[in-house]
Specification:
heterodimer; A: 417 residues; alpha/beta; FAD/NAD(P)-binding domain; D-Amino Acid Oxidase, Chain A, domain 2; eight-stranded mixed beta sheet; six-stranded mixed beta sheet; B: 90 residues; Folate-binding fold; four-stranded antiparallel beta sheet; two-stranded antiparallel sheet; globular
């Protein structure tokens, strides 16, 4: 079933009786060429690009819950390519280009909206740092505009520009940054992979990884054993548990990150605003809710919900930046489980076990990476060579100390990102 | 989330700084292998369930604590002074 304006019109006039399920619900076969563990954004995009770019379709995606039931449906939907360090810069640049063609590619409306992202600064030193970051983005071929105070005021007149602690000096505008409908990204990739023949198997939890003579042979699941000689682990916050099934320990600590949404309001915030000094960022969804979040709670957690001190902190930061937000009522809050690495950058790499591949460590920035991560991980699994834009996301960088990518500059150590 | 400091009693989580896994109490020797140091600095069991981690009572007595905690429920099961825990481990 192909989506088109004509089709929507025709269905609307005939009672919407012609729509069919977007993907099949197959039972697992006894063996596949490849298995992807994890049916979230990254796992589904990996399967899609394995099929589209490499013609590999004898693939199963194993999901312990339902498709897109993890962080792909729990994030704050921001898409951007405003990274600075070599390694990150080219990767996110590539990912953003994939975003820009994604809807046509998938024939699916992911509501990608390049409404512009603005990172605010509050001192001369910060202005210098953002000017440098902007130059790095331009050198990478992406876009950045350094706005002065009046430039920011023109776009965001409702901010508190004269806040005593954090007066607004200006902002770095990334015009191609924006948001997308997070669930639709999972659904679009799922539909695209399914249409190419990939089996998306839900309610199928992996309980063991079969390894013989240092090579992977398949997995044990709650729906029986499944054989495959290539297995990719793409399970975000649960990476530690799945890797343990293969006898591995990872440089990952799982933390909780909270997010919030208000009741639906008339359009008021046209951009994505990042207030780094307050650890606060906000945008408005197409339904009208203000979607915002802050920093990690900063303790290891698998709870998918946080505690009140960070709730209070985020609300205070919002009130500091834009006092008008005090009129809005928060509808709900939730938490996601973040796979945090010591340097804050991800891992897309082989493991010491033949045929076992690892994609994790996306910290609190995984959503925008979904297309690029799947593309590069598919390349690695299909060809056993690293895809150039993701070639620095190595697992061994922590042991050797070579190629650490500490984008925040806070140190390569757990609990600092 | 509230943590019972052995010195100060039950206090708000905000009084404490979270360091991370209590592996910090088992620092390798300088001559140990890079693998030992990697395990100490980076690799984590990262359990979903009961864990032991290191907290600093920053806005209280200044003691380092080993807190036993459940990462799934956020239940705090107990806390002992890190100095006692280190002696116990030795």
């Amino acid at each position: 079933m192909r989506f088109s304006g004509l089709r929507v019109l025709a269905e609307g006039l005939t009672g919407n009786r012609g729509w069919t399920p977007h993907w099949r619900d197959p039972a697992p076969k006894a063996d596949y060429d490849m298995i992807i563990i994890g049916g979230g954004g990254h796992g589904l995009s990996t399967a899609y690009y394995l099929a589209r770019e490499h013609g590999l379709t004898n693939i199963a995606v194993l999901e312990k819950g339902y498709l897109g039931s993890g962080n792909i449906g729990r994030n704050t939907t921001i898409v951007r390519a405003n990274y600075f360090l070599p390694g990150n810069s080219e990767f996110y640049s590539h990912s953003l280009k994939l975003w820009e063609g994604l809807e046509a590619d998938l024939n699916y409306n992911v509501m990608h909206s390049q409404r512009g992202l603005i990172n605010l600064f509050h001192s001369d030193g910060q202005r210098d740092a953002f000017a440098r970051r902007g130059n790095a983005m331009i050198n990478q071929g992406d876009d950045a505009v350094l706005l002065d105070r009046d430039g920011v005021r023109k776009l965001l007149p409702y901010l508190d520009f004269d806040n005593t602690r954090f007066p607004i000096y200006g902002g770095l505008l990334h015009p191609r940054g924006g948001t997308a409908r997070h669930d639709a990204v999972a659904w679009g990739y799922a539909r695209g992979a399914d249409r190419r023949g990939v089996d998306l198997i839900q309610n199928c939890e992996v309980t063991g990884i079969d390894i013989e003579n240092g090579a992977v042979k398949g997995v044990q699941t709650t729906r029986g054993a499944i054989r495959a000689t290539k297995v990719g682990i793409v399970v975000a916050g649960r990476s530690g548990q799945v890797a343990a099934m293969a006898g591995m320990r990872l440089p990952i600590e799982s933390h909780v990150l909270q997010a919030f949404v208000t009741e639906g309001l008339k359009p008021v915030i046209d951009h994505v605003i990042s207030f780094g000094m307050g650890h606060f960022y906000i945008s408005q969804s197409d339904k009208g809710g203000l979607v915002f979040g802050g920093d990690l709670d900063f303790y290891a957690s698998y709870a998918s919900r946080g505690n009140l001190p960070m709730v209070e902190h985020v609300m205070e930061a919002g009130m500091t930046l834009m006092p008008m937000i005090g009129k809005a009522r928060v509808l709900r809050s939730w938490g996601g489980i973040m796979d945090m690495t010591p340097d804050g950058s991800p891992i897309i790499d082989k493991t010491p076990i033949d045929g076992l591949y690892l994609n994790c460590g996306w910290c609190y920035g995984g959503f925008k990476a979904v297309p690029g991560s799947g593309f590069s991980f598919a390349h690695l699994m299909a060809t056993d060579t690293h895809h150039a834009p993701a070639a620095r996301f190595r697992l061994d960088r922590f042991r050797t100390g070579r190629g650490l990518m500490d984008e925040e500059g806070t140190g390569s150590q757990h609990n600092l990102h | 989330m509230r943590i019972t400091c052995p010195i100060c009693g039950e206090r708000d989580r905000r009084e404490f700084y979270y360091q991370g896994d209590a592996v910090a109490l088992r620092r390798p020797d300088p001559d140990d292998t890079p693998e030992d140091w990697d395990a100490y600095l980076h690799l984590r069991d990262n359990p979903a369930g009961v864990t032991r981690d290191l907290w600093y009572h920053e806005m209280g007595c200044g003691a380092w604590l080993v807190v036993t905690r459940n990462t799934v429920t956020h239940e705090v099961l107990g806390a002992v002074l890190a100095s006692d825990a280190a002696r116990g481990a030795a």
